[in-house]
């Protein structure tokens, strides 16, 4: 806890006497805690407000606030922010807002919409019977208003009890505007009929959130089509994350159906029964007055369809907007434009995928799961850092796994935050790689030192599965993924059931070697001893077990004769190919191309550039093969997909930032920018421009300042602007 609160924790009266479970955290394969959760406590919307008089001049007003599970904060009717970033009760985040401009002399009101989800899932740390909120307003460093029993509260049924969407991710919101508390967020609203808030002791331990709240703003449609009387189809031009907002009027009890989708049907209707296993359909009821439709939770969508079921309903078309939300990202923080129109489109869909996949944390998709997956972050986190110039979300993601999942298993969980317990061995072994990457971009040596024991803890956990030669065998406590979906594993020859079958396989051991190599580098940076003999013995054991001298390729498993793209790309990437024998592996990748998933494509491309094969890497990024980013664009993508094609996976998400590898390959490998010394105190610049790329410009924000690279007619120029001086090279 980083502050002493004057405020009290307030709770919905319905939660009185409802005890939290002993522990919701457990190893994936162990039996979870049995919880009897009352149905009436799930999907609960709670409104709470406090009116007060401000009769003093002020220089600065700051509001600290949090809620379990989530809140939206309004000051005098204006949205001031929402949050918090999900976390566990024993390390729970609160947000801090400068609200000086929202307050005024005389009457003021703080109004908060608190939501308790109530299911075990990846999106929320919920289902633990913990609910409520706390807030404290300081004016010129003195507590002026804080939560106590004088605050008034109301349980609203306006949002209804819709069907569960995705993997217990969210609830539908069939709004009934007859039950709405009109103007409840505004000054002057009469809340005398509302209940007094219940003051409750809490076991939450509160910490200031290390990242800013999500950015929330309106986006206008690019097109509205009237398909029939009272029937409208709305296109926002690209996939976004948020909810639709509009105003309508009609008789009390009239219905309007709201459908969201990522794509259209052949007849032009919105595909609201989405291929990603989400049904985005809300049937809403009018109050009889002029109703403003405001939904609470966010969806991933491009299109919206409004259908009126009775004549006489009027929808104000000028009021239709998407309320978009994502982690703050300045539009000009990172700019890329090239002579290759396909590459520009690939950059755009990858950038948008990262933009909308970055919420309070990185999410694998902002629809079906809304979960932060450790392996995805190898690609998403540095991409987001380059695109935004902001390293705070990257740092927080690393901490999420230490704070929230290392207490369950020192080998880390695959998902954090969230109460969904899943473990993927391949992902855990990438956390040290992400830590080192963050250090090189940030220069934060103290953070590296604090995290170092956890990197060692990961290796120690997996060491329990070593056989006598040091290779891992039957890591049964975690899923051995290799790639996803299963059909894009290039025939990988190993039994990957859960728990994994007997034997020793390649991909996991390649990642294990990579983790050891990374931790050894971290040890060296920190002046700690590293086990060089361990690396050497692992290298020789890997070669002995998986290298086929006859073919010059690596097999998938001990005793197998099958060589997959995955086994060979990772061997190349981690320097496991014997000296002078890379060419057969490179030619094998040239033949196989991207016969893998979009996740593994990052490692394939990195392996090629590591081996100096930049031309082949560029060819794969810009190819029009079926397994390509061009396929996504051909199928109408505005954000990168979960898989190469909509048809490759039965529940494909059309916004999945783990497919954003081209951003990293372009910046780091083709353009050749790097933090040559931690924190960009020295800029590395080693371009390897593909022959087909005639011209480009890149601008990124770094700790060294704004870096620009301009390339045209074989001439390249590097510009570094640190705010005080501008340096031009070339």
How does this model look, in words?
Strands 16, 17, 18, 19, 20, 21, 22 and 23 form an 8-stranded antiparallel β-sheet that branches. This protein has a 6-stranded antiparallel β-sheet with strand order 5-4-7-2-10-13, with no helix packed on it. The chain has a 5-stranded mixed β-sheet with strand order 9-8-3-6-15, with no helix packed on it. The chain has 14 helices and 32 strands. The model has no long low-confidence stretch (mean pLDDT 96). It is α+β, with helices and mostly antiparallel strands. It is globular.
Briefly, what is this?
With 730 residues, this protein is an alpha+beta fold.
Return the structural class.
alpha+beta
Overall morphology: globular
Mean pLDDT: 96
Alpha-carbon distance between the two ends? 51 Å
- What oligomeric state is this? single chain
Number of helices: 14
DSSP strand (E) fraction?
Answer: 25-35%
Approximate helicity band: 10-25%
The biggest sheet amounts to: 8 strands, antiparallel
Q: What's the total count of β strands?
A: 32
Give the uncertain stretches in residue-range form: none
Radius of gyration: 27 Å
């Amino acid at each position: 806890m980083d502050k002493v609160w004057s405020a009290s924790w307030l709770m919905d009266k319905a939660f009185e006497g409802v005890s939290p479970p002993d522990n919701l955290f457990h190893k994936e394969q162990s039996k979870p805690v049995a919880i009897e959760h009352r149905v009436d406590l799930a999907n609960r919307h709670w409104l709470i407000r406090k009116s007060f008089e401000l009769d003093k001049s002020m220089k600065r007003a700051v509001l600290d606030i949090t809620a379990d599970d989530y809140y939206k904060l309004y000051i005098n009717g204006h949205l001031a922010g929402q949050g918090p970033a999900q976390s566990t009760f024993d390390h729970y985040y609160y947000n801090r807002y400068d609200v000086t401009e929202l307050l005024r002399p005389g009457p003021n009101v703080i109004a908060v919409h608190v939501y308790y989800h109530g299911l075990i899932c990846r999106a929320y740390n919920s289902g633990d019977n913990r609910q409520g909120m706390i807030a404290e307003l300081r004016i010129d460093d003195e507590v002026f208003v804080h939560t106590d029993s004088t605050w008034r509260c109301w349980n609203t049924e306006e949002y209804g009890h819709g069907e569960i969407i995705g993997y217990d991710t969210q609830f539908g919101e069939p709004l009934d505007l007859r039950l709405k508390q009109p103007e409840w967020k505004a000054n002057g609203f009469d809340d005398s009929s509302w209940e007094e808030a219940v003051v409750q002791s809490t076991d939450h331990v509160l910490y200031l959130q290390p990242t800013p709240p999500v950015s929330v703003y309106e986006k206008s449609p690019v097109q509205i089509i009237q398909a029939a009387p009272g029937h409208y189809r709305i296109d926002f031009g690209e996939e976004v994350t948020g909810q639709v907002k509009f105003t309508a009027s009609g008789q009390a009890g009239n219905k309007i159906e709201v459908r969201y989708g990522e794509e259209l049907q052949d007849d032009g209707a919105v595909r609201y029964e989405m291929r990603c296993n989400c049904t985005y359909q809300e049937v809403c009821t009018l109050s009889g007055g002029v109703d403003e439709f405001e939904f609470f939770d966010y969806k991933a969508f491009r299109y919206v369809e409004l259908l009126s079921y009775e004549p006489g309903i009027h929808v104000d078309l000028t009021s239709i907007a998407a309320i978009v939300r994502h982690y703050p990202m300045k539009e000009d923080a990172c700019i890329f434009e090239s002579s290759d129109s396909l590459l520009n489109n690939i950059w755009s869909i990858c950038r948008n995928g990262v933009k909308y996949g970055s919420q309070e944390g990185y999410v694998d998709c902002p629809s079906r799961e809304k979960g932060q997956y450790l392996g995805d972050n190898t690609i998403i986190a540095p991409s987001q850092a380059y695109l935004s110039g902001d390293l705070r979300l990257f740092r927080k993601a690393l901490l999420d796994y230490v704070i929230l999942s290392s207490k369950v298993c020192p080998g880390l969980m695959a998902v954090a935050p969230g109460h969904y317990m899943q473990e993927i061995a391949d992902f855990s072994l990438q956390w040290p790689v992400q830590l080192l990457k963050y250090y090189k971009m940030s220069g934060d040596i103290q953070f590296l030192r604090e995290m170092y024991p956890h990197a060692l803890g990961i290796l120690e956990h997996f060491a329990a599965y070593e056989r006598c030669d040091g290779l891992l065998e039957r890591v049964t406590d975690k899923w051995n993924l290799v790639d996803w979906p299963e059909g894009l594993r290039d025939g990988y020859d190993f039994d990957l059931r859960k728990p994994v079958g007997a034997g020793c396989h390649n991909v996991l051991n390649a990642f294990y070697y990579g983790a050891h190599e990374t931790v050894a580098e971290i040890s060296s940076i920190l002046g700690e001893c590293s086990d060089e003999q361990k690396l050497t013995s692992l290298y020789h054991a890997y070669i002995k077990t998986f290298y086929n001298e006859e073919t010059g390729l690596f097999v998938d498993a001990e005793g197998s004769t099958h060589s997959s793209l995955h086994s060979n790309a990772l061997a190349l990437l981690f320097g496991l190919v014997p000296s002078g024998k890379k060419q057969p592996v490179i030619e094998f990748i040239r033949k196989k191309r991207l016969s893998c998933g979009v996740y593994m494509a990052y490692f394939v491309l990195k392996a090629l550039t590591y081996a100096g094969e930049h031309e082949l890497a560029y060819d794969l990024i810009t190819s029009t093969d079926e397994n390509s980013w061009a396929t996504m664009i051909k199928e109408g993508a505005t954000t990168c997909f979960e898989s190469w094609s909509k048809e490759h996976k039965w529940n494909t998400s059309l916004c999945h930032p783990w497919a954003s590898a081209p951003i990293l390959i372009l910046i780091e490998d083709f353009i050749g920018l790097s933090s040559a010394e931690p924190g960009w105190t020295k800029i590395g610049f080693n371009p390897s421009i593909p022959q087909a790329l005639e011209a480009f410009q890149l601008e990124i924000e770094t700790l060294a300042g704004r870096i620009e690279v301009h390339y045209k007619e074989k001439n390249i120029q590097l510009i570094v602007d640190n705010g005080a001086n501008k340096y031009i090279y070339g």
